[in-house]
Design brief:
The chain has 4 helices and no strands. It is mostly helical. The radius of gyration is 21 Å and the shape is flat.
Length: 90
Amino acid sequence: MKVSVEMDCTPEEARRLIGLPDVAKLNESYVEEMSKFLQGAKSVEQLQNFTKIIAPMGEAGLKMFSSFMTGAMGAASGGGKASSAKKKTD
């Protein structure tokens, strides 16, 4: 059996519905601090060092994330056809 539920709500209402905390103030503070830091960077090296700090796996992490997204997009577009074909043969 498959049940689908469609809800019309704002992101704020959805956040409250599933019990996630409100992080708006934390996000504002984070963005403000990041802006201050980036404005204070005097060289490309400082920005590269900062990037290494906030991206623990660096370039490898970005490649892994990219491959994850590519795989997810492929599964979303082609996965439906494979699962429906499987259902027809079962």
